[in-house]
Amino acid sequence: MADTLNDADFEKFRKVIYNESGITFSATNRPILDSRIKEILREKKIESVSDYYNLILSDHEEMKKMLDSVTTNLTRFFRNQPHFDALINYVIPHVLEEKKKTGDRTIRIWSAGCSTGEEPYTIAMILKKILPLGYNFTVTASDISLKSLMVGQGGFYADNKIDGIPPDYLASSFTKVDGGYQVNKDIMDRVKFDYHNLQHDPGVKNLDVVFCRNVMIYFDEPAQMVVLNNFWNAMAAHSYLFIGHSESLFGMKTKFEFLKTDWACLYQKNV
Question: Per-residue pLDDT averaged across 124-150, rounded?
Answer without folding.
Answer: 94
